[in-house]
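User: quick one - fold this with NAP bound?
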Amino acid sequence: MKDREGQFRVAIIGAGAGGLMAAIKLRGAGVEQVRVFEKENDLGGTWRDNTYPGLICDVPSHLYRYSFAPNPDWSRTFSPGSEIYDYVRKVAEDNDAEEMMTYGSEVTRLEYTSGHWRVTTTQGDQGKFDVVISAVGILQHPVYPDIEGLDSFGGACFHSARWNHDVSLDDKRIGIIGTGSTAVQIVGAVIDDVEKLTLFQRTPQWVLAAPNPFYTDEQKDRYREHPEDMQRDYDALAQTLNHGFAAAVVGKNDDALTAMQNGCQQNLDENVSDPELRAKLTPDYSAGCKRLIVSDLFYPAICKSNAEVVTESIQRIESGGVRSSDGRLHELDVLILATGFDPHRFLGSCEVLGLNGATLEQAWSQGNYAYKTICVPGFPNLFFLGGPNSPIGNFSYLLTAETQFAYVEKLIGLIRDGVLAEVNPKPGVTAEFNEMLKREMTGTIWMSGCQSWYFDRFGNVASWPWTFARFEEELSEPRLEDFHTG
Ligand code: NAP
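Assistant: Sure. C-alpha cells for the protein plus NAP:
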C-alpha cells in the first residue's frame, strides 16, 4: 500500500453531461476533492450551447438519462434540447454539484510531474491533482465553412450552435448551409415562419421518420408510482437500440440494416412526390453510412412552396446572399451555418505533457487513439470519457459515459487505495487493441462509401466498431496486466 499525503484530488475537464456525472459519482464515492473546470459560465455542454429552433434529441428520452436519476417527467418520446438541459441542471441542483464547479476556467495546460498532474487554466495555476478526467465531449468545436466571402455577408449570419436569438426569422429570406441532423431539424421548425427558405445541400442524407408523441399524465404517473415499469421500458429500449440499430451499423445485424434502408426509402417516397426534388434528396450511399437522421418534419417542410433545395455548389458568399456555381445569386436576409462540429479535437488547444515531457499532440499526430477509449500510454492517471473511438453516432452518450466512468472509477479506486501508484496502459497492448479496432472498422457501414464527420483527416473512423455489448464487456473489469503500474 502506498501512503498518500493529504486529500485525494481529481480534476474534471468540462461540465457537460459526462463531467457532471463523473463529479457527482466521485464525490459520492468519497473522493475528498473534486473540481470541475468549465470554459463557459454554465454547465450543460452541448445542451447549453445548442438552442436552435427544432432541437430534439433523437435518442429516446427514457434512454437519455443517468442511471441514478430516472425521470418520469419526460414530455415526449424524443425530448426537446431545452428539456434535456433542464434535466441536467436539475440533476446538478439535486446533487449540490455547483460547489464543485469552477466556471470561466478553460484548462490550457496539464503537466505530469512526480506522480501528479499540475493543472493550469485561463484563471492560472490550479495546483496538483492525483487524477485528471477529460469529459470535453465531441460536439464542442463548431466548424465554420471555408467559403469565399463569408465575412462579406450583409445580413445576420451565425453557426447553429451559436444561435442568435436577437434575430427574428419571421417573414425573412433565410439560407441554411448543411443537411445534417441540425439543418433538418431547423428546416422542420421554421418553414412556416419564413418568407423563403433556401437549403444549400452538398450531400443528401437518409432520413428515418419517427413519430414523437407526448406522454400522457397517466403514463407519467405510472412511471412515478412504479419506477420498475420505467426501468423495464428503459431495458426494452436499450435492447432495441443496441441489438438493432447499433449492431446493424457495425455489420452484426443485416436484417436491421435492410429494415433501416427500406424505412428511409419509404419515408422519402411517401413524403416527396415531386420526382425532381426526390432525385435531389436521394443519397448515393447506404443508410447509416453518415449518421442517420431521424425526423418526420423535414420532408413535409422541404416540399412546401417557400422552400428550395440548391444542389449547385456554393461559389461564394456576397453581401446580398449566396452565389451558386450556376451563377445564380440566392438573395438572403439571414444565413445559418449548420455545418457541424470537429469531433476529433478533444482537448484542442490544451497543452498536455505526460511522462518525459512527451505531448499528447505528438502522440496523436497521426490520429487519436486510446487504450479501450479510456487512456493513452505515457499519460498516466489521465482518463477520457467519450475518448477516441467511443460509441458515438446514434447512441445515448449518457449510457456510454456511465459505462466508461464505472471502469475509470475502478482504476481510481486502486490508485486511491494505494494499490497502484499510477495507471499507464502499455504501448504494445494499446497498439494491438487499435490494430484490431481498425481491422474491425472495415466491416462497418461507416466505411461503405461516404464522407462524414466520423472520419479524421487520416481516414480513421472515430466510432466504436463493435457492438455495445462488446463495449460493456471490454470495460467490465480492468486487466491489470495491461498497465504499467508505477
Ligand atoms: P453534420 O452532421 O456534420 O452536418 C454538417 C453539414 O454541413 C453536412 O451536410 C455537410 O455536408 C455540410 N457542410 C459542411 N461544410 C460545408 C461546406 N463548406 N459547404 C457546404 N456544406 C457544408 O452536423 P450537424 O447536423 O450539426 O450534426 C452533427 C452531430 O450533432 C450529429 O451527427 C449528431 O451527432 C449531433 N446532433 C444530434 C442531434 C440529435 O437529434 N440527437 C441533432 C443535431 C445534432 P457534407 O455532408 O457534404 O459533408
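One thing worth noting: The longest strand covers residues 107-113.
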